[in-house]
């Protein structure tokens, strides 16, 4: 016999019709194949639908608006500061929830979720075929990287989103690649990266990385959606070289395991505190100290990372 929560709209309509015809609850239940108690609860107005699945949303739309006002009032705040002020306004939640509410729009979250669903059944062996890449900036001011600025697209030049700092801090931009087998050679980038200069990096650093880590085996290349990466001429470069590029969702550094390697290198630099002349050498030494075992552990975490994205419905994850 069906339960109350199992009654369909059609069944409920039939119950109402039979009741108007003078049928008893027992006759109605036998007629439509459900329990008598289900009929009784529907007629008494106590019938309820099936309880929704999934975790209940922990904040209200009003609470989300309060968080946006907190962010807009002072853009340079840590997650801890934002959480504290949000809690004081009456919304008790976690740092992860604060992070999810501030970053990523609905379209981006949906694309991340779709991407993760497509990769849900990828094995560690498949992820081991991916050569992950990324650029990262290393500054001399390792001791204080400053607070994150929370802003939306188009708000880059707003006065509230700007903060005074050292005008010309010593820094270098670095490109690197990694796979389950280890890391490739670093490229120190001078000036801005456009499509032409990026293709030079691919030619002189990505291909040697692939040769070192994969030899003659096939591999899939990963990079994000930076303009130089998604340029038509860059796409033609990959086609001409017969290299498959992994499709990638926007604003998704948490999906790229190489981000963890950048964090390792930067932590070592903070501890060593090299001077200007030693900076590049220190970066190279720290990068070279990363072991294949560390890289392999990061790649084995990819299936868990994908599941985390799906569980979070496309929101950022701890990875």
Automatic annotation (TrEMBL):
It comes from the Eukaryota. PANTHER family: TRANSPOSABLE ELEMENT TC1 TRANSPOSASE, TRANSPOSABLE ELEMENT-RELATED. Residues 14-47 form the HTH cro/C1-type domain. CDD domains: HTH_ARSR. It comes from Cyprinus carpio carpio. PROSITE patterns: HTH_CROC1. GO terms for molecular function: nucleic acid binding. This is HTH cro/C1-type domain-containing protein. Pfam families: DDE_3.
